[in-house]
Q: What sequence folds into this?
């Protein structure tokens, strides 16, 4: 963490980073206060305002809850550089994008796994998972897992790997249902043998606009 920041602000950044998991709403002011041991919501607002002024947080005009971390905020909270391994379609009809080393400054801690399973980053293309707070351009931290539980958000390869997508997983006998989180898109239902599950989404990172 950035030791130049006051300890309580570092704790707030860390709390916000840990609260950025997939499918979770950002924490409220009261939740932040409880999480970092502050009794006053006004004190939280003061720290958030200073962090925003110094470029660690980005105010969202259309969100009623807390600001999100900027790239600088993520670096201060957890630190480290990790490789961006490729892009994944949050939709259907897009071909899988070949893996590449694009490079992105992000929290190295996100890629450490106590289970020993490999983790990597993918950048999202498309809008099919917006109701799960996964937007076009977001970065996903994926943990390799060929047998995730039903209801998990997963990375799935279809048609022998020609198409790759991120969806919610449901097994239904001999078929697999891949469900988008966007009311305008339909479920993908395919034979189980035609799907290869690569892993599950464990974190969503909303990078700042470049």
A:
């Amino acid at each position: 963490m950035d030791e130049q920041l006051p300890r309580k602000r570092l704790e707030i950044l860390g709390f916000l980073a840990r609260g950025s998991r997939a499918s979770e709403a950002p924490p409220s002011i009261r939740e932040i206060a409880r999480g970092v041991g502050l009794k006053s919501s006004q004190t939280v607002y003061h720290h958030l305002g200073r962090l925003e002024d110094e470029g660690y947080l980005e105010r969202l005009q259309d969100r009623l809850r807390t600001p999100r971390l900027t790239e600088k905020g993520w670096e201060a909270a957890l630190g480290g550089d990790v490789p961006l391994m490729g892009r994944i379609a949050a939709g259907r009809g897009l071909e899988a994008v070949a893996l590449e080393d694009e490079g992105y400054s992000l929290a190295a801690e996100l890629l450490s796994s106590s289970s020993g399973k490999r983790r990597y980053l993918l950048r999202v293309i498309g809008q099919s998972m917006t109701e799960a707070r996964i937007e076009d351009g977001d970065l996903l931290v994926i943990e390799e897992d060929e047998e995730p539980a039903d209801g998990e958000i997963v990375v799935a390869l279809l048609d022998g790997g020609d198409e790759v997508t991120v969806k919610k997983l449901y097994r239904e006998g001999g078929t697999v249902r891949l469900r988008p989180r966007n009311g305008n898109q339909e479920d993908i239902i395919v034979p189980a043998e035609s799907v290869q599950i690569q892993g599950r989404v464990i974190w969503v990172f909303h990078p700042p606009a470049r």
